[in-house]
Amino acid sequence: MNKIVFEIFDPALCCSTGVCGPNPDEKLIKVRNLIDKLKSDFGEYIEIKRQTISQEPKKFLENPSVKLLIQNEGKTALPVCILNGKVVTYGRYPEEKEIYSYISSLSS
What we know:
The protein is built from four helices and four strands, in the order βαβααββα. It has helices at about 25-40, 55-60, 65-75, 95-105; strands at about 5-10, 45-50, 80-85, 85-90.
């Protein structure tokens, strides 16, 4: 199996995952669970990179796809999710079945 690189470019969050405080956002809990499942299922074959615009704004400018989406859509483009260099979703996080479908298409 080839290496899978899953990148998440998050909007501004209170911490690196956003799953903190007394009332964490349900979407952020789901994406955290997805990340844990991907790591469990793919182990060493997956690399997950997660950046928040408030903590690493330079990373958003360095990625041409993310930069273009933000220029065209503004902050509503975030989050941007990229799988092996290809934008798979923007403006929302992918559902579990969706990301697994994208991953299975990589090996086809």
